[in-house]
Structure formats: C-alpha cells, structure tokens
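Throughout this chapter, every protein is written as a compact record of paired, labelled lines. The reader may check this reading against the record printed directly beneath this paragraph:
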Amino acid sequence: MRRLLRALPVFILIGVLLSIMSMEGDRRSGSREDEGYPLSADLFLLDTFCTITIYEGGGQEALQTAKELLGHYDLLFGPEGESSDIRRINERSTDRVAIDPDTAGLFESILPVYEAAGGDLEVTIEPLTELWDVKERTVPPDEQEIGSALSRICYGGWHIETDSDGHSYFVAEDPVLRVDVGAFAKGYIADRLRDRLMKDGVSSGIINLGGNVLCFGSNMDGGDMHVGIRDPEDSSSYIMEIPARDISVVTAGIYERYFDYDGVRYHHIIDPATGYPVQNELLSV
C-alpha cells in the first residue's frame, strides 16, 4: 500500500483524508417518506459496524435478503468458522481447495488490483498480519520474526480454477501460502449487495461497511448522497463532505487499529515489502 498512500498528498492539502461515516441529505416530507422510507438495518459483521439503508424500492423483503447475504459473506470470508473458505484455504492439506463461487469471484476481482497497486497490496500477507495482531500486541515483533513472516509471502503464488461442472477451486502453488482478504473483501461485498438490492427492485440506497460507503441512486429529495470525511483527531466532527451518486467512497486509516510503543504508532496497514506498518505523513486515505 506504500505507493498508493504516497501518491495522494496533493489531493488532501486541507488535511488528511479520513475514515468515512455516511451522512444523509436533508429529509423533507415527500412520497418516499409517506411510503415508510428510508428502511435501514444495523449489523455488526465483517468485524465492523455495517448499515444498509434503502431510500426507494424493494421494501422490507429486499432489506432482509440483503441482511442475509451480508451474513453469508461474513461467514464465507471470515478467518475462522466452519463455513469459512478463507480458513479452509489457510488450513488446507492439499494444494487444491474447493471454494464457493462467491469466493472465486472475490479472488478473481483481486487480480487487476495487483497490477494497479504495483505490489503494495498483497493477499498472501497473512503471515505478517497475523504477526502484527494490533488487537493483542503491545510491543512490535523482533526482526527475526518479521523476516520469517516475510519469507512466507507468495506473490502471485495462487490461481482460481473452474471445472467443466462449474465447480471452483483455489489452487496454491506454495505450501506455506496463507491469505488475508481484509484489504479486498468489503469492496467486493458492497458491490454484490448493491447488485442484489437492485435486482430486488431497490433504486436508491447506501451500503456502509465500516467506512466502505457505497451510494447508489438519489437521496430522499432526489439529489446526491453526501459522505462525511471524519476528522481522525475528533471522531465527532468532519473535515469535508463529498457528494456521491453511484459510487463508493472508501478510506483506510491508522487511527482506530493500532498500538503505540516507544513513541511510534504501529498500525494494521502493513507494507508487504518491508514487513512493517507503513510509515509516512498520512493518517488516512
């Protein structure tokens, strides 16, 4: 992620872009409100707070279907649990693991990101993210531990296969390969939830997966949605608003998942080239 983070300062001279909290447009009386909109559901899934809001179409049935689909992805892409494809890949006893079509879709969506990120985003980074467990750690790992984890990063060491019956498989080309889809999954899930909502008749809504905010259609007044960019040093205030329609607005920051040690902040955004959390002038992008 190093190059991506350093490519952005020119766009954020007024401050650092920070974790997103969705903000609805002004609500005035109108036909959508008369019909009971907006409809909203709050859930704690994907290890974060999630909100699905429908402004028009679909109704409660579409909202319930979206909630169930989000729960499905939480089980499928989580690092633990019997239904987790990620756990099955990481605990495999063979190099070829049968996976759900949605898991295959997620990994296939990762491939173009490799090229765009130039190696700064790496799905086989699990040995490092496991080592730098900022929820539990209070001191950084030593150089030997970091070097050992770095040696297990397998750039491009996997692919997806689909057989003639349509069954999908994750194929690991290195026995030490382990994956962490945390940098990729929420964006993929948000897109799939939008697709399902629209299929079920929803014409406008917001999907907020812990700072991964997807807006489609219009707000209650027929205008753009507005996404607030939170000040990382004051969680109750915003530094700006971004109008958004049919687009995702996403941040990754260093101010929620971290520990401080000897005057240095060690956070969860790991550079796969160095094995250390990214260190630069940015709090978030």
In short: Residues 271 and 278 are 5 Å apart (CA to CA). The helical segments are 2-6, 31-34, 59-77, 85-90, 101-117, 126-131, 143-150, 185-199.
